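S.,

Sequence below, as promised.
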Amino acid sequence: QVQLVESGGGLVQPGGSLRLSCAASGGIFSVRPMAWYRQAPGKQRGLVAAITRGGETNYADSVKGRFIISRDNAKNTVYLQMNSLKPEDTAVYYCNVPVITFPTGDGRGNFPWGQGTQVTVSS
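The prediction came back faster than expected:
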């Protein structure tokens, strides 16, 4: 079955960087769009960044210019480079195949969610 495994989170100071990875297995992901989501405590999961199978990218306004999504289709892996991190970026980050992508994308994914990876931005 489909399995999504996120990694790369951690504790970082404001202004710092992290690179998240998501390894997908159990399906042919190279032909699907992929997306990163995040869920902060007490908030709903939301779409952060998405990438088409051809490499076109879109971002939530809150992360534009700071985050970069990319993918390696040969490895069935999607990445999220996060720069200039802010405390408000603190959340659990997940990847999935989006049900609806930008501009009207929401927090729904097509497959069971992985465990996510915690990102904490704090001094």
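The CA atoms of residues 4 and 114 lie 5 Å apart.

Coffee later?
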